Automatic annotation (TrEMBL):
Designated name of the protein: 2Fe-2S iron-sulfur cluster binding domain-containing protein
Any Pfam family hit: NAD_binding_1
Origin superkingdom: Bacteria
Lineage: Bacteria, Pseudomonadati, Pseudomonadota, Gammaproteobacteria, Oceanospirillales
Organism of derivation: Nitrincola tapanii
PANTHER family per record: NADH OXIDOREDUCTASE HCR, PROTEIN RFBI
Molecular functions per Gene Ontology: 2 iron, 2 sulfur cluster binding; oxidoreductase activity
Amino acid sequence: MHKVALNFEDGVTRFVQTLPGETLADAAYRSGLNIPLDCRDGACGTCKCHCESGQYEMDGYIEDALSDKEAEQRYVLTCRMIPETDCVVTVPASSEVCVRSQLADVHAKVSEITRLSESTLSFSVAGDQVRAMHFLPGQYVNIQVPGSDQTRAYSFSSMLKTEDESVSFLIRVIPNGLMSGYMTEKAAVGDAITLRGPYGSFYLRDVQRPVLMLAGGTGLAPFLAMLDKLVQQGLSQPVHLIYGVNTDTDLVELDKLENFAQKLEHFTYTACVAAADSQCERKGYVTHHMETVPFLTEPEFDLYLCGPPPMVEAVSQYLQEQSIQPSHFYYEKFASSQ
């Protein structure tokens, strides 16, 4: 057996012992700790941590979850990491979030469905169990597709709404997509729907320095929830969001962003479209507009990024090329189930 020290971002350290051949994630779970994870198969990257010291074995994962460069820097997927000596591992989440709880199904009803554009829709769910849910802005849930045994992961795009006690999600409409097909062709207000969660270590931390948010496509969802939270608690640091999409039809929820800009004195945003024939004022990718962020050259700022894997890699490369080092860099990759 090997002892592993888990250092959480709030300064708390917990120790777990791994059995021969046991992954760190399983050992932590046995010990009452739930390192944020979803797939357990080395495919999603949710359980990514950093091994500060010690030896370990790790295989059976895909590059979208952990790149070769990250592996060289001793980043690990705890669902695949098997310690071979005592280790010290840094977990990018607070100890409070990682206290194990028994996740139960949350039974809700569809309360609203809104087609935002040809490529995107929003839906809300409500109910007594939704009202009792606790989640951090930026986290996600697995939602069972009605009429099937399949689930799809979606980030909350709002905190609990006081007017109807509902929560919202954004969906990209994908041809032959299981959930988007249901929502566009079959769903009706009042339909029963089941959620499980929350999951994920991508959530808003205390805003103690300037924050740059980068959203790609429906990766805007978790930032809408974060901004919702900031309206509730107030904001004294500058926060800038760059929201990038591929085509004009993908550009949604601008009215909400404008509303947040009106409510939050220190919040600003930029929207850009990659397509050359776009009617949007700003064209290109999010990296083309990062240099206009005034605090990017300051010694301390935090960076939050949510988008598809190519976008995450492009931003990481841009930061390296420009020698930009955020104080903290939190990101979440997402891709369609197809």
